[in-house]
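Structure ticket #2291
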Amino acid sequence: MAYAFELNDLGFTYRGRPQPALSHITLRLEPGRALGLLGHSGAGKSTLLATLAAVVPAVKKGHLTGEVRVGGRALAGSRPADLAGEVAFVFEDFDAALVATTVEDEVAFGPRYLGVAAAEIGERVREALAQCGLAGLETRRVESLSGGQKQRLAVAAALATDARLLLFDEATTDLDPAGKAAVRHLVAAAAEGGRAAVVADNDGRQVLELEATALLGAGELLAVGPPLEILADEALADRAGVQPLPYLKYFEQVGDRYRLRPGVTVREPAAAGEAPPPPAGGPAAIAAEGVYLKYSGGVTALSGCDFAVQEGDFVALVGENGGGKTTLAKVIAGLLAPTAGNVRVRGEAPTSWSGRRRAQTVGYLFQNPDHQIFQATVRAEVAFGPRQLGLPVREIERRTEAAVVAVGLEGREAEDPFAIPKGDRQRVALASVLSLEPAILVMDEPTTGLDRREVASLMAAVTELNRAGTTVVFITHAMDVVASYARRVAVLAGGRLLGAGEARAVLADADLLARAGLEAPLAARLARELGLPAITGDELSVALGPAAA
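Resolution: structure written out below.
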């Protein structure tokens, strides 16, 4: 039987770049198996997947060495079209890959290109949409979907091709926990049906249930093995720039469940980490009461939503895909006017502000950085806002430099923002907002596409801004980021606020989270089963240890 894919001593260097993206990679996968692919940003995950889809080197040019085989077939000289129906690729930049006007047409596009009979196309579309939680949205226009719904749509389109090799490049970044779980189940079902899948991710939790994981670092293959073992190895995970999960060494995996290994003790009293900062005092920075918003296409995004944030607070806004989080954020920023209800930001209606006043008061980071950046260099992008404010040259330079350093892009100021990975473009967009030094910072999925070091760097910068007085509201599906950084959490679903409170209390409320299609971080769930108050991996690791001899 031919392997689903084989990479034999694979190397690749992009045209115009001195360092190879991949070096001496030898890896193979059998049909009916799924492989996780972990590594830091720039480790080579996307490049490796692109070689399997013939995107490299046919489209993305460079020098390739070694051999790539898919289904027993050597890909030398092949183009992506040659693999249609055999390989399906869900790109990291999924939004840019969507081509049709409606949801139904997007999923049907691949089968139609492959010449599948009309009756079978209809069945494939219905099945793929149901599997991805999009049933009932067949006639919706693609641009009206939330970011998470678009990502689900990209996965559904790949499934509908019935390809034998599925490639997922950061395919769950914008999904809520229910959506992430759905993709994991789809990967498992595909493998059971004889297909093969490769799941590339920065987050090891997304591949824990797979049989094997390959770990990449700086283009080299560092290790291949069971994900539980690899991620419990702090030194190895750190070398690859992924978040180690050291507490997993105290557990064994039974299906998708975990139980303590024999000989592990739970220390009492269990450490619960540092207490969060006291609730912010002072007047409300944001006050939204009974807000409704209905889009022109007839979709109701907010249905009587209430939301309040005090000056200086640090709030995570969480909820299901399509639940209204991005719409509420845009209403707060004055980018959308509510259909009904009352919104006040620092006591005023944000829609009444001039563009200059809005930029100085509410800095807004879009979910998709490509909707925000437009300059030819990183420096020009970050300096654009301060320059429009008419600030002195020295002040523009100070703000630009500080913002670039805050997001970890120093030394890259001359690069073209459109020629760098999506995660880096996200950091450029955030720097362009930070350079305006707004009183309120609203961020929509700021950590999407970032590895754990980049997340830590970015959130540390935002935390410092908050300590200096900036009010922060951030939308995220990364519940571990919520646990580590948020002071308060607001839960949104169906366009309404379901509940809000101190982060530790909200993350311990499994019923509230479930009503919004959410779940606490893995460490918090394991701790809850053990009767521990921990919500982060560090807290759980402190609470566990080997039994005394």
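Closing remark: The CA atoms of residues 42 and 421 lie 8 Å apart.
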